[in-house]
């Protein structure tokens, strides 16, 4: 049985759909209403509040904290300043991705790591002989994602005007003003929606106080609670990969083919090769030279062709409002060159989008591919073009 | 009077004998199964030893039964009905407990109370075991390779196995080597730190062997038991509805459906020989029955030294067979209970629908082994408990329960000699109950009936030489092309027209059916029947 997060007393009351799923051992709301549309539009027009507590969280402290993280992850943290947050992945010896997450530098010798899968054992195994302590705080720290164009205006009354100076991918310690008093925590300008937004971190005991304060502050501006279904649409628009959907962790892959390298996942920008040794370095150096054999790409499905397939059956085109995670093959001139992993209709862009992995030769922006479309139990093909990512990238995200 | 001439007579109606019979009958052969006891199934049997209560007298959980046998013999149609075990529960004497559930998230939750790292490593461990399992599966689903042979067909199959090895990454190779050589505890140390997790997991490495959890070589046995969980047919261990005998009865029904004849209470005195050739059997009542082929479903020692006679065997075969180790090390206590037992460390019943291990620490298990080494049963033994009546209403009256306790170590070779077991039987039973009382304080008050099986009883009543539950230890040196002896792992024997189809043949013991099925296939392929 999943366990409730500290926000459960509030979210359970709001979740009229009773649609939950298990996320890292916790109850997670899929959608609050029968359909998630309202939450999605609130995210893109006002702001939404999502319980992100199930994320795994680790505190890494000590003189060698920087060394450990630079050794485990594909980035070098040596020159990072306090307050910097990094999106990062980490690999096994063969340069195959194990997981992705964020690293926040909270203090000179103090970092916080978040991950999709449990990572304590991996961090500890690689910490031998180093002056670091790693603490699993997954169960002690609660997290909220406040995302959307009005999120800053909603959060300012709760944490103060200093928020206006918090830059993209930076963290700051805050005191949340709750019910007439202050409770400490951290706010990072991060998120998984590709929008202006913040993530709020606090002790479990303060979770409900902060929740209430933010909801109260946001209500006049149209704040809504959001579940995972709306998030799943937003993250595809933002071009974010999801572990276990876009890629399989090298830990749980049965065969080599199921594993991915950072280059295959288009994480090139985060890999820093020329520095001291880190796990997977040799393999990644070699791959950097030869180039990856396949690449993660964004795809835009040709709506006219899609519509024509449905028209052929006397139907109007139909897509579910949720992101579909059922993989389908991708072809180039009739030969299979890859597969699409997530497909979604973007209500903002009015486009049918997909994330997929294709042979490197078919990965250039503009390449014309075909995607499988099943209509009335019959298989058809529609054009899907490789398109630049992120699909949705508003200026406010970084402004 | 016209004497019936059988294509094949099968000695022993254990599940392997029955599987062999079913395959031969399905291929159109005229077969007869002769079982000594009044019940079919051998060690896979259900017995109502106390009115209203059905014990799975010996074997109590099923997982290894090969999926292709289930399909070939259409066993579900003939009564096979499995109920999955829901959990593995470890009560601890200090009031703590750990339950591993079929729900991985729940298990992580429980394990993380002991070690968060271990909770994380659970997934890695089953991934590693699945990968090795894929490597081992083809070995247990086909006849043993014969490395000494120059037959091109053999070489091809060996090469295929070789390729299995060479395909593997360095990590995989390393893992396999470790699995083949390490102790169960050392192997588990590679993943886990908490004793409470390693201890109940390590016991799979000693079941049916005369080894301790720290003895090298036990890691492999662990895998043998893990196989069922990664095999896909049941995905985990299960109870047979109506007791383990339900599996044997389904096989027997299938065999009969295909035309086999099965007789109980028909013990065989000896196998009839004409020179170095088997020609039939002599029953205990003196009747002689002729057959073109004779198949033994009994263990190798009983078959060759008992039913054939050492004097008829080639000397080198007899010598190596005499070195084949049985060394039974376990016993069984079956209980009829007036109500569901309550564990003081965790009241309630949700965690009692799977198996329960009395294995509080690795030292406890090792100490239990120490005592056995010197010829006494463990004063505080490892006990594997199941209460199938929690999920199967057919084995006990409403509200009442049957409790099966598999107990190790109970060495066949007592210091005073094995024949002294009958006088120690009740003391052995008392030890088991006293051990249980430390976890279930009122156990003694709720026992309605108790049935104690010592290794001696397993031998005398069930025909298991030295009480070994697997027809010979499942250690690596007695596996594959060395089971039962090198050169004779392909079900044939030095006696022409005599075949070995029991757990004493490749791929070994457990409710698997593979030896029986592979023997039948070998016979049909060789067109000897
Ligand atoms: C206490 C105990 C617990 C076990 N627990 C499990 C478990 O939980 N799960 C699991 O998978 N395995 C378990 N096993 C092992 C498993 O039960 C055996 O490996 C398997 O049942 C053996 O099957 P078999 O057909 O090879 O031989 P057997 O079942 O031994 O069959 C041999 C048959 O031959 C008969 N026979 C003997 N002599 C003669 C004769 N002279 N004439 C005619 N018939 C004769 C016997 O009566 C018997 O029926 C357990 C075994 C025991 C003893």
Describe the structure.
The complex is a heterodimer of chains A (399) and B (529). Chain A has 399 residues and is of the alpha+beta class. Chain A folds into 3 domains: 8-55 and 139-226, Gyrase A, domain 2 (2-Layer Sandwich); 57-137 and 261-290, Alpha-Beta Plaits; 294-396, Elongation Factor Tu (Ef-tu), domain 3 (Beta Barrel). Chain A is built from 9 helices and 19 strands. A 6-stranded mixed beta sheet of chain A has the order 10-11-12-9-3-13. Chain B is globular, with a radius of gyration of 22 Å. In chain B, helix 1 packs parallel to helix 10, helix 3 crosses helix 4 (116-140) and helix 6 (170-181) packs across helix 9 (218-230). In chain B, the strands form 4 sheets. In chain B, strands 1, 2, 9, 10, 11, 12 and 18 form a 7-stranded mixed beta sheet that branches. In chain B, strands 7-6-14-15-16-13-17 form a 7-stranded mixed beta sheet, sandwiched between helices. Chain B folds into 3 domains: 5-79 and 241-325 and 471-526, FAD/NAD(P)-binding domain (3-Layer(bba) Sandwich), CATH 3.50.50; 86-236, no CATH class; 327-465, Polyamine Oxidase, Chain A, domain 2. By secondary structure, chain B is α/β, with parallel strands linked by helices. In chain B, a hairpin with a 2-residue loop joins strand 10 (268-274) and strand 11. Mean pLDDT of chain B is 91; it is low at 230-234. The chains are: A alpha+beta (399), B alpha/beta (529). Bound molecules: flavin-adenine dinucleotide. The site of flavin-adenine dinucleotide has 39 residues of chain B, from helix 1 and helix 16.
Features:
heterodimer, A: 399 residues, Gyrase A, domain 2, Alpha-Beta Plaits, Elongation Factor Tu (Ef-tu), domain 3, 6-stranded mixed β-sheet, 19 strands, B: 529 residues, alpha/beta, FAD/NAD(P)-binding domain, Polyamine Oxidase, Chain A, domain 2, 3 domains, 7-stranded mixed β-sheet, 18 strands, 36% helix, binds flavin-adenine dinucleotide
Mean pLDDT of chain A: 96
Number of strands of chain B: 18
The hetero molecules present are: flavin-adenine dinucleotide
| Multimerization status | heterodimer
Mean pLDDT across all amino acids of chain B:
91
CATH topology of the largest domain in chain B: FAD/NAD(P)-binding domain
Indicate the proportion of strand residues of chain A.
25-35%
What's the total number of strands of chain A? 19
The overall number of domains of chain B is 3
In which range does the helix fraction of chain B lie? 25-40%
Q: How big a fraction of the residues of chain B is strand?
A: 15-25%
Give, in spatial order, the strands making up the sheet with the most strands of chain A: 10-11-12-9-3-13
- Number of helical elements of chain A: 9
> What is the highest CATH level, the class of the largest domain in chain B?
Alpha Beta
CATH class designation of the largest domain in chain A: Alpha Beta
Low-pLDDT sequence parts of chain B:
230-234
Give the helix/strand class of chain B: alpha/beta
């Amino acid at each position: 049985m999943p366990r409730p997060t500290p926000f459960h007393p509030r979210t359970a009351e709001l979740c009229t759909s009773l649609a939950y799923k298990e996320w890292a051992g916790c109850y997670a709301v899929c959608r609050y209403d029968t359909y998630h549309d309202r939450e999605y539009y609130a995210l893109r027009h006002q702001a939404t509040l999502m319980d992100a507590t199930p994320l795994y969280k680790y505190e890494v402290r000590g003189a060698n904290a920087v060394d450990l993280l630079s050794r485990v992850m594909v980035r070098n943290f040596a020159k990072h300043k306090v307050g910097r947050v990094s999106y990062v992945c980490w690999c096994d010896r063969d340069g195959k991705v194990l997981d992705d997450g964020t690293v926040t530098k909270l203090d000179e010798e103090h970092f916080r790591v978040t991950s999709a899968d449990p990572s304590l054992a991996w961090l500890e195994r690689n910490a031998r002989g180093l002056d670091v302590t790693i603490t699993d705080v997954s169960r002690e720290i609660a997290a909220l994602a406040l995302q959307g164009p009005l999120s800053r205006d909603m959060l300012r009354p709760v944490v103060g005007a200093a928020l206006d100076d918090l830059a993209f991918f930076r963290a700051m310690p805050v005191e949340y003003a709750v019910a007439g008093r202050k409770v400490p925590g951290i706010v990072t300008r991060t998120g998984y929606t590709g929008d202006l937004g913040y993530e709020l971190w606090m002790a479990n005991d303060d979770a409900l106080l902060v929740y209430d304060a933010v909801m109260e502050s946001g209500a006049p501006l149209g704040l809504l609670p959001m579940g995972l279904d709306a998030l799943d649409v937003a993250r595809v628009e933002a071009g974010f990969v999801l572990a276990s959907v876009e890629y399989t962790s090298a830990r749980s892959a049965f065969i080599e083919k199921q594993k991915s390298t950072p280059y295959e996942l288009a994480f090139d920008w985060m890999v820093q090769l020329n520095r001291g040794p880190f796990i997977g370095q040799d393999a990644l150096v070699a791959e950097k030279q030869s180039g990856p054999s396949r690449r993660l790409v964004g795809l835009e499905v040709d709506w006219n062709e899609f519509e024509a397939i449905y028209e052929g059956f006397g139907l109007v085109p139909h897509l579910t409002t949720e992101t579909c995670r059922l993989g389908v093959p991708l072809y180039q001139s009739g030969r299979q060159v890859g597969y699409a992993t997530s497909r979604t209709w973007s209500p903002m862009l009015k486009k049918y989008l997909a994330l997929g992995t294709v042979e490197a030769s078919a990965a250039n922006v503009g390449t014309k591919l075909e995607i499988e479309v099943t209509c009335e139990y019959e298989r058809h093909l529609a054009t899907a073009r490789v398109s630049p990512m992120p699909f949705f990238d508003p200026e406010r995200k970084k402004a | 009077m016209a004497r019936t001439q059988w294509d094949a007579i099968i000695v022993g109606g254990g599940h392997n004998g029955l599987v062999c019979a079913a395959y031969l009958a399905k291929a159109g052969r005229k077969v007869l199964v002769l079982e000594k006891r009044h019940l079919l199934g051998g060690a896979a049997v259900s017995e109502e030893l106390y009115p209203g209560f059905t014990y799975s007298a010996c074997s109590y959980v099923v997982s290894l039964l090969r999926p292709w046998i289930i399909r070939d013999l259409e066993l579900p149609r003939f009564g096979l009905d499995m109920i999955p075990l829901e959990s593995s529960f470890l009560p601890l004497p200090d009031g703590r407990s750990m339950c591993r559930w079929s729900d991985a998230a729940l298990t992580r939750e429980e394990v993380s109370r002991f070690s968060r790292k271990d909770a994380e490593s659970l997934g890695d461990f089953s991934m590693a075991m699945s990968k090795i399992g894929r490597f081992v599966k083809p070995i247990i689903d086909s006849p043993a390779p014969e490395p000494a042979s120059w037959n091109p067909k053999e070489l091809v199959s060996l090469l295929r196995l070789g390729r299995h090895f060479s395909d593997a990454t360095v990590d995989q190779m390393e893992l396999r080597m470790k699995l083949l050589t390490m102790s169960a505890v050392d192997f588990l140390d590679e993943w886990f730190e908490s004793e409470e997790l390693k201890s109940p997991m390590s016991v799979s490495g000693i079941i049916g062997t005369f080894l301790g959890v720290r003895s090298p070589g036990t890691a492999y046995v662990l895998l043998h038991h893990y196989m069922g969980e990664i095999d896909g047919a049941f995905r985990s261990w299960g109870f047979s509805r109506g007791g383990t005998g339900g599996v044997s009865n389904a096989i027997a029904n299938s065999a009969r459906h295909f035309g086999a004849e099965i007789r109980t209470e028909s013990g065989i005195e000896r196998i009839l020989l004409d020179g170095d050739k088997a020609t039939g059997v002599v029953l205990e009542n003196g009747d002689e029955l002729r057959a073109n082929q004779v198949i033994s479903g009994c263990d190798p020692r009983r078959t060759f030294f008992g039913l054939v006679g050492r004097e008829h065997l080639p000397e080198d075969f007899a010598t190596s067979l005499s070195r084949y180790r049985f060394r039974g090390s376990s016993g069984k206590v079956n209980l009829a209970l007036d109500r569901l037992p309550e564990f003081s460390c965790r009241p309630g019943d949700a965690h009692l629908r799977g198996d329960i291990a009395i294995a509080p620490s690795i030292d406890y298990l090792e100490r239990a082994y120490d005592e056995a080494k010197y010829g006494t049963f463990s004063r505080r033994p490892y006990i594997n408990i199941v209460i199938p009546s929690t999920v199967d209403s057919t084995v006990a009256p409403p509200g009442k329960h049957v409790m099966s306790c598999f107990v190790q170590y109970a060495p066949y070779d007592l210091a005073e000699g094995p024949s002294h077991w009958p006088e120690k039987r009740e003391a052995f039973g008392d030890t088991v109950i006293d051990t249980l009382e430390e976890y279930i304080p009122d156990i003694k008050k709720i026992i309605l009936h108790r049935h104690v099986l010592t290794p001696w009883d397993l031998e005398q009543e069930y025909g298991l030489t030295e009480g070994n539950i697997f027809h010979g230890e499942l250690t690596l040196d007695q596996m594959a092309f060395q089971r039962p002896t090198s050169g004779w792992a392909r079900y044939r024997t030095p006696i022409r027209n005599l075949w070995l189809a029991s757990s004493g043949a490749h791929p070994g013991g457990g409710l698997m059916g593979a030896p029986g099925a592979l023997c039948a296939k070998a016979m049909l392929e060789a067109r000897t029947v």
